[in-house]
Amino acid sequence: MTLVEILIALAIASLMTLTGWRAIDALQTSRDRVIADASTWQRIDDLFATLEADLRRASLTEFSGNSDSLMLLQPAINGNPTAAVVRYSTAQISAGMNDNGAQPALRITRDGGSAHTPMADVNAVTFTYSVDGVAFTPTIATYPRALRIRIAPAGVGAATDTVERTFALR
């Protein structure tokens, strides 16, 4: 073998190594993004499941809500003499990145008695309520017939993507 052949073989091997390294790096980046997106969607799904369970247990006598929070009363259970007030609210969060490398604007939290549970980090959230099941308004003082929550997840898809869930109540 001549020196030229060896240099050509080394150049080809270097190009193949560089191409392989870039492909592996792209796969790892994609995997990390998919895992972060899946985590975000799981937190949003957990929020919806928890909210649905709270709404099923809620008392029809005490309910109030506006576009960024809702408060409901749950009857006493398991021999506990006091009813529990459950509140879902949103708050601005400090600057920082979430798991997706995006900067969410709001954190949805669930306050139930002494427990303060962060549910999901989102770019936007809106609660709307319907007394008649047709027209939705941003505020309510009585137990509604339907509740609609609209969420713009942080770091998932395009900035205009939203998730909407409507709960039929009563």
Write the layout of secondary structure elements.
Layout: H1 3-57, E1 63-66, E2 69-74, E3 84-92, E4 106-112, E5 115-130, E6 146-153, E7 163-168
Antiparallel strand pairs: 1-2, 2-3, 3-4, 4-5, 5-6, 6-7
Could you list some keywords that capture this structure?
1 helix; alpha+beta; 170 residues; 32% helix; single chain
**Strand share of the residues?**
25-35%
Roughly how many Å apart are the termini?
85 Å
Question: Quick one: biggest sheet?
Answer: 7 strands, antiparallel
Give the fraction of residues assigned to helices.
25-40%
The spatial strand order of the largest sheet comes to 1-2-3-4-5-6-7
Coarse structural class: alpha+beta
The shape, in one word, is elongated
Rounded average pLDDT: 85
Order of helices and strands: HEEEEEEE
Q: Count of helical segments?
A: 1
Structurally, the number of domains stands at 1
Spans of at least 5 consecutive residues with low confidence: none
- Tell me the number of strands: 7
Radius of gyration: 25 Å
Task: Give an account of the 3D structure.
It is a single chain. With 170 residues, the protein is an alpha+beta fold. The chain has one domain (3-168). Helix content is 32%, strand content 33%. It is built from one helix and seven strands; from the N terminus they run αβββββββ. It has one helix spanning 3-57, and strands spanning 63-66, 69-74, 84-92, 106-112, 115-130, 146-153, 163-168. The protein has a seven-stranded antiparallel β-sheet with strand order 1-2-3-4-5-6-7, with helices on one face. The protein starts with a helix and ends with a strand.
